[in-house]
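Self-study notes.
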Amino acid sequence: MTTKNILVVDDEAGIRELLSEILFDEGYGVLLAENAEQARQQIKHQPDIVLLDIWMPDTDGLTLLKEWVAEGSLIAPVVMMSGHGTIETALEATKIGAADFLEKPIALKKLLATIEQTLQQYQAPQSSPEAAADNPEKKSGCVTVELPLNLPFREARMQFDKLYLNYHLETAEGNLSDLADKLGIERTHLYRKLKQLGLKPPKKAATQ
């Protein structure tokens, strides 16, 4: 089983150390950042999930989340953390793109359950192009998939987007522009969306 890596972004050293110890003990790999600038560097290591504090001195977590979403550099689900959280703040975070919201002090059971649930919800199904070619359903364009309907709208939408784009990537012929034309969206928008969801563009895209 591949070790899941978690990026912890918090300006308080004590919280970073505590979360790091807990997550290491649970078998996770941990990346640490004490501010937005360090977080921008650590996100390049492609963590599987991000624990992001809202209140930080240089750039707050919500602003950083907006930045990642706008740039298309967000390739992992983000769970926001705050010791001064309100319903309005939590709603704003989920509207921007956060997967969940944890209020400090965070109970150990709640922390681990949220991480496990978020990783399960955002894990894209993996299958090879060869398997897709041998599958009559894939050839016909009609595929039966399972999607839990008891999720928040944004999470359900992200899961659907992953399933939809993963299917078209597996059956893609040609480069990224060809796929964008087939799906009826702008090439740049498709590229950002693939990066956001952690999916790789068609192999021929690199030759453009």
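Second protein, same conventions, sequence then structure:
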Amino acid sequence: MGGDLNLKKSWHPQLMKNQRRVWEEEKKALEERKRIDQMMKERAEERAIQELQQMQEAAGGKKRMNRVDWMYNTPAAGQAGTTEEMEGYLLGKRRIDNLLKDNESAKLQ
């Protein structure tokens, strides 16, 4: 008799391309589930740390400030050099080569 005509249909589950598509979707779902579990675990750890800090504050420990002021503070002057040098570099008045050479000569002395 005739062959299986369903094998010629695009929706047939025994076709390799459909099996591959199902396998890929299952793999994506598994990876997504692992990622969600990891995020839930991290959030649980953060909550536990936060609860411990609240208990410590209630017991008389120092109060922790949740601020982001450090993001807006200027960097320490010793780390980046003087502001004149940096501004000169940013404005194109000085070359970075000279800044590097000056730093190297200062280190040698």
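Instructor comment on the second fold: The chain is about 65% helix and 0% strand.
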